[in-house]
Every structure is written in structure tokens, then in C-alpha cells.
């Protein structure tokens, strides 16, 4: 039986989708959005992991409606270029070891702009509810009586691994996926390392570069095999994306070569990237990895 005959037998119902070009899609994007950003309101938006084409239609529409946009360093330049030129831009980004704008100041700016009647967008990299302090900021807005809404984004764990050819789950290799933050202090560590070190699961660690040596040590001590495949994905989904691959025993060494923002991925599924890699160029280092 031919492929055409097989497809023709599928129980397809309803209207067929009609492809449109990018210009047509961009010009019609606002029509997809039923709710609007109102004066004195804050929209908390997830920008996704960096590729501007992963921004949702609703997020794009709200960015173009905003009077004021408060943004982080993790929001890519390509996405910020979509903001109209007459919009007020306020950088409230934070970097490891240096908070250029304290969180309390960011909270107060959101309140002040909204109470002055501005349409405010607070945009964050990835998804604002995934290690993004989005919930904390909305609690403050609620206490201040400020109206808000949330537009989720593709979290970095889902976007970066997809662009690196690493499926988060796979029936043969990983029946679960855990997302955790590596932004922790060893002297005050309450992580359940026994759970994190289980086999046949994918562990994705946000903000883990600075603690990579400690993470490597804890995972191996709690049962993860030293030769478990790992990847560090730097600037995932962006044109400058880099993927460093090796084994768990190499984690701290590889982390020394990577720059933030980066994700650490631990699990058997990483080895599948040799087959499933599709985005960008694989380095010689990547192709020489031996997971045996």
C-alpha cells in the first residue's frame, strides 16, 4: 500500500488547514486575541527560550499593545525588536552574583506603572511560572489591588532540549522528567538527591553551571551511574546555540566551557541526540562522545 493510499484512509474530519505565509500570519495575529490589555493592568508574559518564532500569538499581540515593558536579560534581542519603538523599555534583569535591579524594586515598578494607568507588560524568558519568580510578582500585584493576567511561554527545558534533539521522555529510556533549579547553597541543601539520581528518567537543571561540581558529586553518590549521558545546552533555540555533551563524570569539566544561560540535562535520552539532532551544527566534540 502506498503512503498516499494510507493517508487517504485516515479518519480526517472537519475543515482543512490552509497554510499562510509569515507576513499574512503576522498581520492577522491580533485577531486571534480575544482579551485585550487594559489601562492600569499588568500582563505577565513568557517569551520562550529565545527563538522569536516560538513566541505565542497572544504574547506578540500584548507586546505590541503595551505602554511599558519590563524585561529580563533572558529575553532575546530578536524578541525585544518586536516591541514598538515608542514603548517605554525598563531592564530589570538579574545575573548570577549581581542583581542590577533588586526584586523589591521590580515589584514596586510594576505597581507604580499600573497605578499611573499604563498598560504594562512584564516579560520573562521561558515561562514565568517556571523558576521565573512570576508567582511572587503576581502576589505583590494582588496585594496592591492591581489587575493582571498571564500569558505562558515555552519553558527552556522543553524548547532547548527539542532544538538539541533530546526528547524529554521516551518509552525505552525515560518514563518521567524532572525540572529542578541548581541555584542552591550546599550548606542549606534540602534537595531529594535520591529521587533526582534515579535511572530511566530525565533530569533538567536550570541555573546549574555554578554548582555543577556539587551536582555531579551528589548525583553519583546517590546512585546515578558516572557514565550516564549528559548535555549542557547554551542559549537553547537561538542561532548561537551550543551543545556540550559527555558523561555525568564530565559535568563540571563541561560546565567550565559553557556560558549562561544554559541548561544541564542528565539521562539516557541524551544519547538519542546523535540521531535526532536537527538544529545548527554539531561540533567535533559532540560527534566523538562515547557513552559506553
Q: Could you explain the architecture of this structure?
A:
- This protein folds into 2 domains: 41-151, 3-Layer(aba) Sandwich (Cobalt-precorrin-4 Transmethylase, domain 1); 156-276, Tetrapyrrole methylase, C-terminal domain (Methyltransferase, Cobalt-precorrin-4 Transmethylase, Domain 2, 2-Layer Sandwich).
- The chain has a 5-stranded parallel sheet with strand order 3-2-4-1-5, with helices on both faces. It has a 5-stranded mixed sheet with strand order 6-7-10-8-9.
- Helix content is 29%, strand content 18%.
- Mean pLDDT is 87; it is low at 14-22 and 283-288.
- Strand 6 (177-181), helix 8 and strand 7 form a beta-alpha-beta unit.
- The protein has 12 helices and 10 strands.
- The chain has helices at residues 3-8, 22-28, 57-65, 77-80, 103-115, 134-143, 156-163, 193-196, 212-221, 251-255, 273-276, 284-287, and strands spanning 41-46, 68-71, 88-91, 119-124, 147-151, 177-181, 202-206, 229-234, 242-247, 262-266.
- The chain is α/β, with parallel strands linked by helices and 292 residues long.
- Its EC number is 2.1.1.107.
- One of its GO terms (biological process) is methylation.
- GO terms for molecular function: lyase activity; oxidoreductase activity; uroporphyrin-III C-methyltransferase activity.
- InterPro entries: 4pyrrol_Mease (IPR000878), 4pyrrol_Methylase_sf (IPR035996), 4pyrrole_Mease_sub1 (IPR014777), 4pyrrole_Mease_sub2 (IPR014776), CobA/CysG_C (IPR006366), Siro_Cobalamin_biosynth (IPR050161), Uropor_MeTrfase_CS (IPR003043).
- This is uroporphyrinogen-III C-methyltransferase.
Amino acid at each position: 500500500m502506498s503512503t498516499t493510499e494510507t493517508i487517504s484512509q485516515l479518519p480526517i474530519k472537519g475543515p482543512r488547514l490552509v497554510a499562510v505565509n509569515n507576513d499574512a500570519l503576522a498581520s492577522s495575529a491580533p485577531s486571534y486575541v480575544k482579551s485585550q490589555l487594559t489601562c492600569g493592568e499588568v500582563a505577565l508574559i513568557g517569551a520562550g527560550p529565545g527563538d522569536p518564532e516560538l513566541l505565542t500569538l497572544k504574547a506578540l499581540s500584548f507586546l505590541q499593545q503595551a505602554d511599558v515593558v519590563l524585561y529580563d536579560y533572558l529575553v532575546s534581542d530578536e524578541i525585544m525588536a518586536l516591541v514598538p519603538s515608542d514603548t517605554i523599555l525598563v531592564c530589570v534583569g538579574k545575573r548570577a552574583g549581581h542583581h542590577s535591579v533588586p526584586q523589591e524594586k521590580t515589584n514596586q515598578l510594576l505597581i507604580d506603572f499600573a497605578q499611573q494607568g499604563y498598560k504594562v507588560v512584564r516579560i520573562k524568558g521561558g515561562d514565568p511560572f517556571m523558576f521565573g519568580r512570576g508567582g511572587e510578582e503576581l502576589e505583590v500585584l494582588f496585594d496592591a489591588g492591581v489587575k493582571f493576567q498571564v500569558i505562558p511561554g515555552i519553558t527552556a527545558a522543553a524548547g532547548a532540549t527539542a532544538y538539541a534533539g533530546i526528547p524529554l521522555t521516551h518509552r525505552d529510556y525515560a518514563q518521567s522528567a524532572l525540572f529542578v533549579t541548581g541555584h542552591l547553597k550546599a550548606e542549606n541543601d534540602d534537595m531529594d538527591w535520591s529521587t533526582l539520581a534515579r535511572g530511566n528518567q530525565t533530569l533538567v537543571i536550570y541555573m546549574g553551571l555554578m554548582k555543577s561540581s556539587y551536582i555531579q558529586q551528589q548525583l553519583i553518590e546517590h546512585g546515578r551511574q558516572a557514565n550516564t549521558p549528559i548535555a549542557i545546552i547554551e542559549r537553547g533555540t537561538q542561532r548561537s546555540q551550543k551543545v556540550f555533551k559527555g558523561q555525568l563524570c564530565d559535568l563540571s569539566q563541561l560546565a567550565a566551557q559553557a556560558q549562561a544561560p544554559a541548561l544541564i540535562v542528565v539521562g539516557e535520552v541524551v544519547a538519542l541526540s546523535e540521531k535526532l539532532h536537527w538544529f545548527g551544527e554539531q561540533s567535533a566534540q559532540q560527534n566523538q562522545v562515547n557513552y559506553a
